[in-house]
């Protein structure tokens, strides 16, 4: 890293400097070098910023974000209120959602929803469709779409048969099925 | 020929001056105007509780009815100011209790308030009306009970994000049965449940209640009962907004909200169940302010809600809104003035939502009245910042936090100097700016040159050398508050611009390269500044003079050095060199 001295000669700071020392006091160059040296600085606090930063290379970044005190600048009051929901959820329970015919998949966090009705509402919003009424006998009536999911064993299951908690823990991936394929699921074939 | 108005006439004229700046100017005209003005100033604002003493304030302004005091430096919000630093309210209350018996309003920010202070307030000021405690700490719900029990004419009790030791919810029941003057109650920061029937009765008997912000403990099923008793509410904060989905709860909520024809502001929304959001749709067309910063809800639900609020002026939301949601915001809410987007997962290694710089660019393009921005995101580019600057030259506050420190322009890998440079160049009315990302000294050259109206600047992990600090301190004519952390700024720029510090309220520098020796020099040379070194490693004298201090807080003052310093704060003054460690 370029020391302060080289910048000084660019700007000629010395000429305009407010000298507060007694006349005849010299500025020791050693002082400037020491300032850049890490051993006089308390660890952890002074962030290493030198040439790595200039090159855009951030290999000296701290081990994890959480270890920099006060960064990102969020009030602890706020963190307690929002994060307390997250601590149990960790990174959430994100599963992929595919819809037959859609160009790309989406992802949703199952932990956000309290039950099936909320999940369906979200899916309906996300994909601009309607999911029919669930019945044990006939699957989803009243629309062309049926929600299905892939469970831990890799089987394609109809959403809604098992209690919500059980569904949340066994669902690996969601798939919204359309048309004739969808109706086939409900008939226990 | 000289003549003068009678005093009474001047006093009458001065009564129309509400701005402190104007009153300060008036008091400088001549001695008699100074005297007249000081006797008729009723409202006092003290931006730094250590810049002046209670005695000096009371001596100059003998008849004050409203006081606003700020304590700790802003970076205290992020745990950078050690516990026990100061900003105690008690000395102020004890002095004012004697001299201002008719005090009506106390508004505080980042002060340490004890139950003893609260009790003294409740007993000393017979006509006490307004207590606002913003980001304060040090008191318990017992202190609130004193206020409730003794302040017969209380209008406003606002605990705005204070840290309160919550012993019980019983404090609310201390409002007497004949107490009816409440206009505003904000208890959203409290944890405990208050007696719901006491709350219901309180709401019922206060016909002027305009603001009610509940805490998380009030369940959504109970909201209709409160809303029905206060259809005149203008600002409402829910508690936890979740319950199992039941049509009766839902329809009760719809009906109750519909009865509130004056609602303009909504907040709360902890633990939101999206299915209950539509219960508010009937009031959304009048809503101007929406605080969804606790609402962990996905973008589609947020968009559906926002699309019902065409008159929205202020939105606080989590980054779940994503770029798509911000695009919707920019098309539905053309009156938007303020936007704050908070990170839902600030410590995660990977982004958990699709929120990028694009969302902010879109809002800046679509919302012509946007003037205030606080935005947390994970990537930024100079191109985006330049676009924002060009779109919104009317920006007044721009606070950007790119979560990774020193993140460069993600497209070009360059520093973000030109981007922020464009912001200060185009936004000529900019008063507040927070920087982040990879920044060299050059950005400070732009800021020093162009940011003529800038009053507050926050800098972190930026710059290369003292030159950066020098640009800011030698430019920025309107600068009042400068806060810096983890930047390679040191002695030269600070000493060369010492005089500038007397024109500012305060300077904070932590984890920078300012040496103890320079702090001492500054303190000795500038008697009207308090130059305070904060160092938890022990006395700075025990280390070489060239050793950088941990933290430095410099502020102008007429009160002299602090007399209530903790053992990790040292004042640098003429005696500093002589004082033993």
Radius of gyration of chain B, in Å, reads 26 Å
Kindly provide the radius of gyration of chain A, computed on alpha-carbon positions and rounded to a whole number of angstroms. Answer: 30 Å
Assembly type: heterodimer
Helix/strand-derived class of chain A? Answer: alpha+beta
Q: In words, what does this structure look like?
A:
The complex is a heterodimer of chains A (189) and B (581). With 189 residues, chain A is of the alpha+beta class. Chain A has eight helices and seven strands. Chain A has helices spanning 4-11, 13-16, 29-36, 51-54, 76-89, 116-127, 164-170, 180-186; strands spanning 94-99, 106-109, 133-135, 139-141, 145-150, 156-158, 173-178. In chain A, the strands form two sheets. Chain A has a five-stranded mixed β-sheet, with helices on one face. Chain A has a two-stranded antiparallel sheet with strand order 3-4. In chain A, β1 (94-99) and β2 (106-109) form a beta hairpin. Chain B contains 20 helices and 23 strands. The radius of gyration of chain B is 26 Å and the shape is globular. The termini of chain B are far apart. Classes of the chains: A alpha+beta (189), B alpha/beta (581). The interface between A and B is large, with 63 and 85 residues.
What is the topology?
The complex is a heterodimer of chains A (189) and B (581).
Chain A: H1 4-11, H2 13-16, H3 29-36, H4 51-54, H5 76-89, E1 94-99, E2 106-109, H6 116-127, E3 133-135, E4 139-141, E5 145-150, E6 156-158, H7 164-170, E7 173-178, H8 180-186
Parallel strand pairs in A: 1-7
Antiparallel strand pairs in A: 1-2, 3-4, 5-6, 5-7
Chain B: H1 7-14, H2 20-27, H3 31-40, E1 43-46, H4 54-60, E2 66-70, H5 90-99, E3 105-109, H6 115-124, E4 130-134, E5 137-140, H7 141-150, E6 156-158, E7 163-165, E8 184-186, H8 196-205, E9 211-213, H9 223-229, E10 235-237, H10 247-258, E11 265-267, E12 289-292, H11 299-306, E13 314-318, H12 322-332, E14 338-342, H13 357-366, E15 372-377, H14 382-391, E16 397-402, H15 417-426, E17 432-434, H16 441-450, E18 456-460, H17 466-474, E19 481-485, H18 491-496, H19 498-501, E20 506-510, H20 516-525, E21 529-534, E22 551-556, E23 569-572
Parallel strand pairs in B: 1-2, 2-3, 3-4, 4-6, 5-7, 6-8, 8-9, 9-10, 10-11, 11-12, 12-13, 13-14, 14-15, 15-16, 16-17, 17-18, 18-19, 19-20
Antiparallel strand pairs in B: 20-22, 21-22, 21-23
Protein name (chain A): Auxin-responsive protein
Biased composition (Basic and acidic residues) (chain A): 1-11
Region (Disordered) (chain A): 1-48
